[in-house]
């Protein structure tokens, strides 16, 4: 018979993994990070009408919550940065689309740029990925990828490139 505390701990671990794995999207067999970014796109769409300070506040809260969430999920899975843990991709997509006018082109461009930076890992993303551990490291490299993608999107807008 399983003790109540063991079953509670098991349920908590399953809950942590379900959320950290993007509600199951991170368990995709092919391109889990790309598939796991899709809930971030859905969240961007859900938040498009909120005022910018609220959007930034929600993004910051999800980032802060993601540090222990991703750290715990990594411990449960026994890996430094498990591919199935995609909460960081969800938050990274929110960062990417910060203050970007919403439209099909901007979402597609933001998605593509964010995934490019997250996969390619140019400096400083790659440095953070290699040198910052735990939940902070898991979250931080994607936040930086999101910031870089966001800057490119805003640069495109500044130069009159329609998104």
Describe this structure in words.
The protein has 163 residues and is mostly helical. The chain has one domain (4-158). Helix content is 72%, strand content 0%. It contains seven helices and no strands. Helix 1 (4-20) crosses helix 3 (52-77), helix 4 (87-96) runs parallel beside helix 7 (134-158) and helix 5 (104-120) crosses helix 7. It is globular. The termini are far apart.
Key phrases:
163 residues; mainly alpha
The parts where pLDDT drops under 50 for at least 5 residues are none
Order of helices and strands: HHHHHHH
What share of residues are in beta strands?
Answer: under 5%
Residues in helices, as a percent range: over 70%
The structure class reads mainly alpha
CA radius of gyration is 16 Å
Q: How many structurally independent domains?
A: 1
Average of pLDDT: 95
Shape: globular
Oligomer: single chain
Strands, total number: 0
Largest sheet: none
Note the gap between the termini. 59 Å
How many distinct helices? 7
